[in-house]
Write a structure and sequence with these properties.
With 183 residues, the chain is an alpha+beta fold. The protein has 7 helices and 5 strands. β4 and β5 form a beta hairpin. α1 packs across α2. About 4% of the residues have low confidence.
């Protein structure tokens, strides 16, 4: 076990990475962030572009290892492409669930139709990023909220009714597994 600054034994310090991050991770993080920034800001004058470059540069410096955990390889680009393929399907699921929640909200028998439940399941996803994407995808889908995910891949999810809960983990987990090559 490693010792912290006060000399106490701390099992939590044993997993901290000590290797140096690659320059390609910084560059790719910067490019991705600047692209998203330009897409969302829509302002391309010198002042705003300078602010965007400075912001994306500083955030890339501190968080490059969060977006790209290893060296940039062909697999990285393949994963990014598969993720872009996943997004339209997930946007469709969000729209479909939003319509369902809207139906529940305006139905005259709303109190009879809403049947809140907490479901638990074990995910087959092994990667940390895949589990985070899965948990966030569940939460972004109206009618469901990820309450808890533990280190053993056990998910706890709140659903507004049976219809919202019956698809979990299901197709969403399969698609995310495909994105990260975890078939």
């Amino acid at each position: 076990m490693k010792k912290d600054a006060a000399g106490h034994r701390s099992p939590g310090l044993t997993h901290l990475p000590t290797e140096k991050r690659s320059g390609s991770a910084y560059a790719m993080t910067f490019v991705v962030m600047l692209g998203v920034w330009c897409l969302l800001s829509g302002k391309f004058d010198l002042f705003h572009l300078t602010l965007g470059v400075l912001s994306c540069g500083s955030v890339s410096y501190f968080s490059a290892d969060l977006l790209f955990t290893g060296p940039i390889t062909k697999r990285t680009f393949r994963t990014a492409y598969r993720f872009l393929e996943y997004l339209p399907w997930h946007l469709y699921q969000i729209l479909r669930s939003a319509v369902h929640v809207l139906y529940l909200s305006f139905h005259p028998r709303m109190l009879e139709l809403i049947d809140p439940q907490v479901i638990r399941f074990r995910s087959r996803l092994r990667g940390d990023l895949a589990q985070v994407i899965f948990a966030n995808s569940i939460t972004l889908t109206p009618g469901t909220i990820t309450i808890y995910v533990d280190l053993h891949r056990n998910f706890t999810v709140h659903a507004i009714d049976r219809f919202s809960a019956e698809d979990l983990p299901g197709e969403m987990e399969r698609r995310i597994a495909r994105v990260y090559g975890e078939r």
